């Protein structure tokens, strides 16, 4: 009997669906079936049975379930105790964040964090990427903390840390280039250079356009802001995006939305972590630092 087999049993008992359970465990369905089969074989009783299109737990499974829950509860308590014994002033933080905050927010927070000499022995490994890719890294455990939009996922906890304003970026010869501010209606028929569908900002823009009864006209998709700025400079479309240094310099004009639209033309950036994952003390220390800074901002 292994912990992996018990974990497979526990998840299966919660969802009673082999495909869903396998997805939650990040294993194949045959691997899940084999693990449960081996556990049943060792203990000599069936834990699940099929009735029509449904999977049900047997009386043996129902009897076994509270003991398995207690095993994992005790194991988590033991891990928590060991983590508390560690020194929070050392360790590594695996920090993920979306591209658009890599130029300002992340470097500023790290500079302030390291201004405290008590944090000097904490190291970081950084993971930049698009929203949905980073969410998968968070769920798999590759990332401890993630700065991105809220995924509305019950397995993930988080707090909002700041509002990220969106701007309109146009070529310098564009009809709107001499304006100081624009409305979303002003650009509803403009070809748009957008991040790909794996970026949260793409879905956010779709919702913004829906509010004015329109759909964005996607002229091109890119993976990050450098590609976006290059295509806007080439007069292939405009961009609606957070600010970054890639939009500075010649041939581009950055416009704000009218003040009455700025409340909607932004997105909330959250600090995220897995709800059921025990964070190491150094990770907790950085998490609490970011939360405290956001409250005082």
From TrEMBL:
Q: Which GO terms describe its cellular component?
A: cytosol
Q: Which InterPro entries has this protein been placed in? A: HTH-type_LysR_regulators (IPR050950), LysR_HTH_N (IPR000847), LysR_subst-bd (IPR005119), WH-like_DNA-bd_sf (IPR036388), WH_DNA-bd_sf (IPR036390)
What PROSITE patterns does the record tag this protein with?
Answer: HTH_LYSR
SUPFAM superfamilies assigned? Periplasmic binding protein-like II (SSF53850), Winged helix' DNA-binding domain (SSF46785)
Q: Which residues form the HTH lysR-type domain?
A: 1-58
Under the heading Pfam families, the entry gives: HTH_1, LysR_substrate
Q: Name one GO molecular function term.
A: DNA-binding transcription factor activity
The cross-references to Gene3D superfamilies, in alphabetical order and at most eight, read: 3.40.190.290, Winged helix-like DNA-binding domain superfamily/Winged helix DNA-binding domain
Task: Alphabetically list the UniProt keywords.
Answer: DNA-binding, Transcription, Transcription regulation
Q: Does the keyword DNA-binding apply?
A: yes
So what family is this one in? Belongs to the LysR transcriptional regulatory family.
Stated name of the protein: DNA-binding transcriptional regulator, LysR family
Organism annotation: Propionivibrio dicarboxylicus
């Amino acid at each position: 009997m292994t912990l992996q087999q018990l974990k497979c049993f526990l998840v299966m008992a919660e969802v009673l669906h082999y495909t869903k359970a396998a997805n939650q465990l990040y294993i194949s369905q045959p691997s899940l079936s084999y693990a449960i089969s081996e556990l049943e074989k060792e203990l000599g009783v069936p834990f699940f049975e099929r009735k029509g299109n449904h999977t049900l737990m047997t009386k043996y499974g129902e009897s076994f379930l509270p003991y398995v829950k207690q095993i994992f509860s005790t194991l988590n308590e033991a891990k928590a105790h060991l983590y508390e014994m560690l020194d929070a002033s050392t360790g590594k933080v695996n920090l993920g964040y979306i591209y658009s905050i890599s130029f300002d927010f992340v470097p500023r927070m790290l500079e302030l964090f390291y201004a405290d000499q008590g944090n000097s022995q904490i190291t970081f490994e950084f993971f930049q990427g698009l929203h949905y890719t980073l969410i998968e890294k968070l769920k798999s455990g590759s990332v401890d903390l993630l700065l991105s939009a809220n995924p509305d996922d019950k397995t993930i906890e988080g707090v909002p840390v700041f509002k990220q304003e969106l701007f309109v970026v146009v070529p310098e010869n564009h009809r709107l280039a001499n304006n100081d501010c624009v409305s979303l209606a002003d650009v509803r028929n403009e070809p748009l250079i957008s991040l790909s569908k794996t970026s949260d900002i793409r879905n956010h823009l779709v919702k913004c356009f829906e509010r004015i009864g329109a759909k964005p006209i996607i002229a091109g998709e890119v993976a990050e802001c450098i590609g976006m700025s290059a295509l806007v400079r080439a007069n292939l479309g405009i961009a609606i995006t957070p600010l970054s240094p890639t939009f500075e310099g010649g041939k581009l004009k950055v416009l704000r939305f009218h003040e009455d639209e700025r409340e909607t033309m932004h997105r909330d950036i959250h600090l995220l972590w897995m709800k059921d994952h025990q964070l190491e003390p150094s990770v907790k220390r950085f998490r609490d630092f970011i939360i405290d800074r956001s409250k005082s901002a």
